[in-house]
Amino acid sequence: MNPKTLSDAVKLARKVSAEPHSLRNMDVVLVPPTIYLPAVAKFAGKAKKIKLGAQNVFYEKGPPAGGGAYTGEVSLAQIKQFGVGFVIVGHSERRAMGETNEIVQKKLKTVLEGGLKAVLCIGEKERNKEEAFPVIMRQELHLALSKIKKTILRNLIVAYEPIWAIGTGHAETPEHAFEITILIRRDLYKIAGKNIASKIPIIYGGSVTSQNAASFIKDGNMDGLLVGGASLRAQEFIKIVKEAGEAAQ
Q1: Is 91 a catalytic residue?
Q2: Of the ranges 134-143, 167-176, 186-195, 222-231, which one carries the lowest mean pLDDT score?
Q3: Rounded distance, CA 19 to CA 42, Å?
Q4: What's the pLDDT tens digit per position in 85-124?
Q5: Do 95 and 137 form a contact (C-beta atoms < 8 A)?
Q6: Per the residue annotation, which of 21, 91, 124, 243 is the catalytic one?
Q7: How confident is the model at residue 164 (pLDDT cuts 50, 70, 90)?
Q8: From CA 52, how far away is CA 44, in angstroms rounded?
Q9: What are the boundaries of each domain within the chain?
Q10: Would residue 21 show up in a list of annotated catalytic residues for this protein?
């Protein structure tokens, strides 16, 4: 639920979109609270490499004409109107509020079948070096991707999001994150086949800063970053984008 005000959201979007990024190797996706999507969309639309994402979406499509008796929810068709191309699914904070693997699967299916890119978040609650790929994280991945056609998995992005690292200032090491990506990729091969799985981006989220961004791209072999609190400070976020972009070259 950040930034707190519409004014703050607009200022942040304006600063980021106005920055002359060198983005030949990457895209920047702004993911504001749903209520700010219309305002932020104006800035995302002005720059080719800056795209728009949503933090959440409801899995029910509603009647054929759209809509439905789901008070408080927002449909895929509704967010599409603002040019949203990405949706975060299964974020740890959503899971902490009671979002089950079944709900995550339904939302993921809705997003992918709707033609948008889905950022599926998976991650362990506690740091455990001995067990590199915890059972719970593997379950999150397999259950989320169950009953989904392999062909639409081309629009999937997997975000490794160690819950213990979020907002703590203690990020995972790029080296261990790299080990996790290898294990995630192996499971994706089993689920989707090598041709599709090899093209699914795997990104990292959890206390990302301008100091560690490049290392996660280079040493962690990450395809991108899911930036949290640091994205609320325009200059810091711009530094992260630049560091990641240079590391990806």
Answers
A1: yes
A2: 167-176
A3: 15
A4: 999 999 999 999 999 999 999 999 999 999 999 999 999 8
A5: no
A6: 91
A7: confident
A8: 6
A9: 6-248
A10: no
Which one of 124, 140, 161, 243 is the catalytic residue? 161
The first and second tokens of residue 147, run together, are 């009953």
Alpha carbons 67 and 26: distance in angstroms, whole number: 35
- Looking at the chain, the whole-number percentage of residues with pLDDT higher than 70 is 94
Mean pLDDT of 175-204: 95
What is the residue-averaged pLDDT of the chain? 91
Comparing 96 with 63, the larger pLDDT belongs to 96
The arrangement of secondary structure in 6-248, i.e. its CATH architecture, is Alpha-Beta Barrel (3.20)
Rounded to whole angstroms, the Cα distance separating 174 from 57 reads 31
What the block records as the tokens of 164 is 């213990």
